């Protein structure tokens, strides 16, 4: 998955592991689980992606998250929400490539 593929995608606010130029601050713990939408990749540091955060209490704000960790969460959510027909279709596609 490329970074452009996550732009506009929804994910949950999460506590992340530190990456260069981006460290976790405990003050954000209260937002874990809040809805987030990826907005754009950081111009200078592609390892960070800006997201809009929609907390259950308070105003919307923006925050940078590690790009790879957003991708992992979005991919995991898509796999978990796949129907049986989608899974079978994907298996057929993969086996045809062998």
Question: Can you walk through the features of this model?
Answer:
The protein has one domain (3-96). It is 28% helix and 23% strand. It has two helices and four strands; from the N terminus they run ββββαα. The protein has a four-stranded antiparallel β-sheet with strand order 1-2-3-4. A hairpin with a 6-residue loop joins strand 2 and strand 3 (48-54). The radius of gyration is 16 Å and the shape is globular. The two termini are 21 Å apart.
Task: Briefly summarize what is shown.
The protein has 98 residues and is of the alpha+beta class. The protein has helices at 67-80, 84-96, and strands at 10-12, 35-41, 48-54, 61-66. The chain contains two helices and four strands.
Quick tags:
98 residues, alpha+beta, 23% strand
Based on secondary structure, the structural category is alpha+beta
Number of helical regions: 2
Strand content: 15-25%
Characterize the overall form.
globular
Give the overall pLDDT as a whole number: 90
- Identify low-pLDDT runs: none
The separation of the N and C termini measures 21 Å
Q: Which strands sit side by side, in order, in the main sheet?
A: 1-2-3-4
Topology pattern, helix = H, strand = E:
EEEEHH
**In which range does the helix fraction lie?**
25-40%
Supply Rg. 16 Å
Profile the largest sheet.
Answer: 4 strands, antiparallel
Number of discrete domains? 1
How many β-strand runs?
4
């Amino acid at each position: 998955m490329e970074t452009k593929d996550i732009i506009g995608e929804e994910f949950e606010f999460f506590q992340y592991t530190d990456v260069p130029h981006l460290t976790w601050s405990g003050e954000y713990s209260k937002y874990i689980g809040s809805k987030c939408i990826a907005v754009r990749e950081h111009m200078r540091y592609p390892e960070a992606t800006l997201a809009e955060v929609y907390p259950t209490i308070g105003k919307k704000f923006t925050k940078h998250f590690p790009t790879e960790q957003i991708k992992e969460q979005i991919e995991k959510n898509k796999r978990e929400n796949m129907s049986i027909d989608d899974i079978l279709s994907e298996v057929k596609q993969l086996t045809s490539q062998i």
